[in-house]
Amino acid sequence: MKLFVFHTPELTPSNQTPDCAIAVDVLRATSTMATVLAAGGEAVQVFSDLEQLMQVSESWAGDKRLRAGERGGARVPGFDLGNSPLDCSSELVGGKRLFISTTNGTRTLQCIQAANSVLTGAFVNRAAVVNYVLKTKPETVWIVGSGWEGSYSLEDTACAGAIAHGISQQLDQPLVKLAGNDEMISAIALYQQWQNDILGLLHHASHGQRLLRLDCHEDLKYCSQLDTLDVLPIQTEPGVLKKF
Prior knowledge:
Blueprint lengths: L1 E5 L13 E5 L4 H10 L4 E4 L3 H8 L7 E7 L2 E2 L14 H4 L3 E5 L3 H8 L4 E5 L4 H11 L3 E6 L8 H18 L3 H4 L3 H13 L3 H7 L1 H8 L3 H7 L9 E5 L2 E4 L1
Helix pairs in contact: 5-6, 6-8
């Protein structure tokens, strides 16, 4: 097995397809997706384009869908939800499909959707991601951070490191044998530096600061939790994720 970490979807090789690809957008898309499915959501369907989201979701009954739109950290006017996992109670999302478009995370999923298996990972469901990789043993694994509008994101790389660290510990293999690129080594080092203060890392991150200015303090607390959700969002058809 070889593990690769890419800081943004733009940095993934355009001429290769991995056996397994893991999209990471800690603040907050992949944290929200795991929360929705853990709360009984039927599925999560992702879009980079808001108009396309509206068109496709029109084919679903109003009581069986929720539309979530986020740009710049704020909810898009006219949508049911923004991108906060705290809004995704079982009473609201149970049995419904979430149609979602966010600034960064949904772009990442579209970039990797051709992989043999596509998952989403966050700190909250890190263990579920690690367990799936250990069980299926793919030859190549890409862990792809979403970044912020094409730039490096501290929290996504730290989470990629948390996933890679969990896999390497369970396999009990030296990192030099598992590492597909240098970014994998650096991501693990970043996670190890902050593993006892993930919330502190989110407060240092530029997007964490952006969300704090939007009064999303509780979102950061929630997204900083490690291994709290035993749920794995996995792609069942392009752009559609269901609970594994």
